[in-house]
Amino acid sequence: MYQEVAFLAGSTEHQFTTFHFNPLENPQEVSSKKGLFYKRAQLLLQPQPRQLDSDELGLADGAAIINVGGIKYRIPWSTLDEFPLTRLGKLRSCSNEAEIMDVCDDYDGSRNEYFFDRSPLAFRTIVTFLAAGKLRLLREMCALSFQEELLYWGVEENNLEWCCLRKLRLRQEEYKEQQRLEDEEVELTSPQSCEESQQPPGVGGQDEGRMAGCMRRLRDMVENPHSGLPGKIFACLSVLFVAITAVTLCVSTMPDLREEEERGECSQRCYNIFVLETVCVGWFSLEFLLRFIQTQSKCMFLRTPLNVIDAVAILPYYITLIVDSLSVGDKPAGSGNNYLEKVGLVLRVLRALRIFYVMRLARHSLGLQTLGLTVRRCTREFGLLLLFLCVAMALFSPLVFLAESEMGAKQEFTSIPGSYWWAVISMTTVGYGDMVPRSIPGQVVALSSILSGILLMAFPVTSIFHTFSRSYLELKEEQIRALRLRRAAFSFLVLGFTALIVCSACAPECIQVSYAFSFFFFLEELQKSFFTYLTAKDG
């Protein structure tokens, strides 16, 4: 009934009997009740007396029969004595049945057999470790699941081979990072994190359902371009206005327009640029307002980075209008004047913040979303890159200053802080040429800084590249999975309406109305369920 594996000790080379493991279908880890295994076995099979031969009698006293998921192993007590801190080693010190049941899931005292309701696949590796002292990960088993098995059997992770231990550590870091990102996402999208507006009393369930349906459709339109035609049109308009804003900002910096602005004049072209900018800002304000209305948590919406960027990009336009109207009350908005000179540098910086409109493309671009996710996941690598750069800059700047000040014919390096710029430009292999070492020692220092910069930049960049690739694949798979779910929902609804039409054509008129109404409400509820699931999936 069970496959038995002999586990012998007494020599440096342990011998095993030939055995084969049949593939398990749908293995599931379940918590077993103490003593239930052999009680069921005794009810199903009548115990039949069996004569033990001399070999089995010898092994019964000097070995323990370990039954893991139906596969039996005969392990000598002398082998378990070498691992007293493991779960199997604790069996040796058990003096009564109660202590044994605390260690294993079931026990048969007549045959000295201990049952463990665990994965036999993982225990095979534990057996190899007990026999030969080699502990390796399994390809067909998740590393984190194998870690749980090691924790259960009391085997330390440090006993793993160095290559397997590195894989386990890497998988643990990935899992922790993924959990941290999921917790942050849940915190940002959780409606319980902020006080929600309460509905006034007396609102009926029908009005509440209509409002929820409208908010759901609005959320799909502004947040999900793949939800349907309204979402695609909304996304295309948003991208179009972003492009128009970027072109308008570039054209407004042309020399002739700047001269008109300095003279306080406004030509027809200047007025047209102002009209385009007003239309674009109006669209962005409407989009920001719609996103604010449809969100469940208003406070968390205002704390989202992309929404903060939208607010920073929109507010300077209204601030300039207010300052313009206060500076020159009788002039129309958008006419050329010198209001920038009156409010100073702060308003110039605010006006330049319109370039942040380009960041709105991240809502509709998978590549930009991947870039943002990579930056969030690689904060440690970016910090390491900055540390390398600062250390090398602090090293090569004094060296090149000393070499050029002592032996250089032309004093281009006036101080060590002034040499920091040259060190950064050299290590990043940009080389503007504004500061050039002339002496041979200075050129040697320059060559060393360039080679060091190439090597130091390459180390963190490799990890950042792998993180970018992994993030892109994750977002791509999530997008494909969401598209499949929506297509399946749409196909199901189409089939439902087709069946409704066929039934209404075949059934009598008296039954058509009842079937139509019942089937319509059924499809409506089904559609709500699908949209609720997809919204939760995307959120």
UniProtKB/TrEMBL annotation:
Listed A to Z, the keywords are: Cell membrane, Ion channel, Ion transport, Membrane, Potassium, Potassium channel, Potassium transport, Transmembrane, Transmembrane helix, Transport, Voltage-gated channel
Q: One GO term of the cellular component aspect? A: voltage-gated potassium channel complex
The answer, when asked if Nucleotidyltransferase is one of the entry's keywords, is no
Q: Where is this region: Disordered?
A: 181-208
Q: Where are the transmembrane segments?
A: 233-254, 274-293, 305-323, 382-403, 444-468, 489-522
Broad class of the protein's primary localization: membrane
Q: Where in the cell is it found?
A: Cell membrane
Gene Ontology molecular functions: potassium channel regulator activity; voltage-gated potassium channel activity
Q: Which example biological process does GO assign this protein? A: action potential
Pfam families on file:
BTB_2, Ion_trans
Per UniProt, the ranges with Polar residues bias are 189-200
The membrane topology noted for this protein in its Swiss-Prot or TrEMBL record is:
Multi-pass membrane protein
Note the superkingdom of the native organism. Answer: Eukaryota
Q: InterPro entries annotated for this entry?
A: Ion_trans_dom, K_chnl_volt-dep_Kv, K_chnl_volt-dep_Kv5/Kv9, SKP1/BTB/POZ_sf, T1-type_BTB, VG_K_chnl, Volt_channel_dom_sf
Domain (Potassium channel tetramerisation-type BTB) spans 66-163
Lipid metabolism as a keyword? no
User: Could you tell me which residue ranges the Ion transport domain spans?
Assistant: 232-472
Q: What is this protein called?
A: Potassium voltage-gated channel modifier subfamily G member 2
